[in-house]
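[job 4471] stage=fold_predict status=RUNNING
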Amino acid sequence: MEESSDAFLDRLLKAREDWIKRQAPPRCLLAAGEVRVKPQGRGKGGRAQDLVLAAALRLEGNQRSLFLAAGSDGKDGNSPAAGAFCDGRTVSRAHLRGMDPLKVRASANTHRLFRALGDCVVTGPTGNNLRDLYLMIDR
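[job 4471] inference complete, writing structure tokens
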């Protein structure tokens, strides 16, 4: 079942909050699926990079979490990357480079942002196409 990026992130971040409430040790959440994205622009990127930017906006200032999303086939949308990763400094790093993450996401040009930050995941073609892979590490 596909769901929106925001709905998926809501579930993932709730699980993270549950860890914190239980004072559980650092954890890694691993999930697979395909979120639904409705691109509004003609930029370069795909659903994995869009989800990572959405996560970056939600995690800004959080120094405990790292999030990664990548296509299992090694390709995300019309970009050469499989996906990208972010942490609590991704948005501020983008601002330092003169990029507005909200505008980047609205123009569907997420690959440009992650390439500029050096945060793309590039694997090349894998020969498999199962689902996208999502990984959240909380330290």
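[job 4471] summary: The chain has one domain: 5-138.
[job 4471] exit 0
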